[in-house]
Amino acid sequence: MIYSKREGIDPRDWLKQANFPSNWKELDLQQWIAERLRSQGYDLKEGVWMDLPGGGRGQADIVLYHDGKPWQVLEVKKIINREGVLLGTNQARAYTSILGATEQPLLMGLAPWSEKEYWSGKNAINLSAHNQVGIIYLNEDERWFPAPNEKIAQTQQTQHRDNNFNFQFKLLNLGLINSLLSNCYSLINRAIDKLNWKQKAIAIVTLCFISFLLSWFHGSKAFDSCPEGSHINNRQEQWK
Length: 240
Known about the structure:
Layout: H1 11-17, H2 26-39, E1 43-51, E2 57-66, E3 69-79, H3 82-99, E4 106-110, H4 115-127, E5 134-137, H5 150-192, H6 197-225, H7 227-239
Parallel strand pairs: 3-4, 4-5
Antiparallel strand pairs: 1-2, 2-3
Helix pairs in contact: 3-4, 5-6
């Protein structure tokens, strides 16, 4: 069977660009959408529970608010296939009615990988009450494409966190060494009392020299591991 050309980008490429893990879940997609909306200034809540008319409870994935009142319901499905369309549109309409949201609800998710499954979902949209629920394929709508620098920003954040941890670890080691040196000095001072003045002078000079070397060595290591120190070194390399 010959299928029509699909729009947007491949859903697998979308996932890579958005830096999703290989074992991603529907909740990951929900949180990604919510974070994107928050960055645009929307007031929202995730996982809004409510009592259903026929008994039991339902949970809207994302609810947008305006002036403190429910404004729009977003139902998220990992993949918008036939089952996702039928279930998601019914949920979105029901939650909108219960919450009293005034805006048209949306069903959001990724398009199926399979062409057959994709067009089966499209047919389900045509047969369902899609005029009451908006359908958004994230990988086909440019407004929902991952930002070009999204993965880079996450990588830089991870590197900064690792550098900060290494810096704190270096400082901890330096503190432990200083504590040990202090204890050693205390013990040596007791022993020095038993030496003559020449032996005392030699011992004091030797200890001062060792202390200076240790302080200089660990101080330079801590500076090199400090994010600010690395930044300065990088700037100096650029100026050369």
